[in-house]
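Form 7-S
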Amino acid sequence: MSVPDLNLLITLDVLLAEGNVTRAAQRLRLSPSAMSRALARLRETTGDPLLVRAGRRLVPTPRALELREKVSQLVQEAQAVLRPTKTPDLKQLVRTFTLRTSEGFAENFGPDLIARVGVAAPGVLFRFVQKLDKDSAQLREGTIDLETGVVVSTMGPEIRAQALFRDRFVGVVRLGHPLSQGEITPTRYATGRHISISRKGLEMQSIDEALSLIGLEREIAAIVGGFSTAVAMARACDLIASVPERHTGNLRAGMHTFSLPFTTPEFTVSLLWHPRFHADPAHRWLRGLVMESCSVDK
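Output:
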């Protein structure tokens, strides 16, 4: 089965609107003979004469009258598809955005982000899902809109990334814990009982590697899967949690936070998305809001 020439829709729309071959040719910047050939093709394609002579003018057939409004609408919709997308009316926007984040991000940055969106676009709903691994498959499949995390080499090369903020590990204990008073030395830190954070249940991490370089090793009393769990546990007992500073700002309220007494590398937390959403105006607006909510100067 042959595929119809969709360019004929534009020709048909102009012909039916003008009801005159010469004027239709002028609008489309064609010669009268070229327009006559196009009308012949349309007649062959539709199986209808479309325009027939009545004295000195052409009049539409019943089939042409039936098609006129439908063809005009099709052409307008096609033109809208090929036109650059306009900025959405945020007050009328109704959409659910899914954000995949590490535990603690929603608790720390979510309230400000939701407040900003509530003012600008009350019809927008956020769905936060927990980030259990670094696989970017969900971004590629379009099941999530945005993800936060540290860019790794295993991430798909097409994934877009924008830095959100720099972060570093700090220690946190409950008020009244021995480490809440006095100078904290590497030895005092290491001899305390610690909470390790690992989604995969592995005890070794960057903090342990840094301690090993100065001949120290910490005692791990518990392993948890996320930052907020570690902070909550440290708040309720005499364990020490070592967590990202900016990522857990709100979570550590009412606790004693201290700089680690040895050097650990800082890291960059980025906003990640798939190119399929890059030009979408609503998605671009959302990315800007996330950047503002995570800004150091907010």
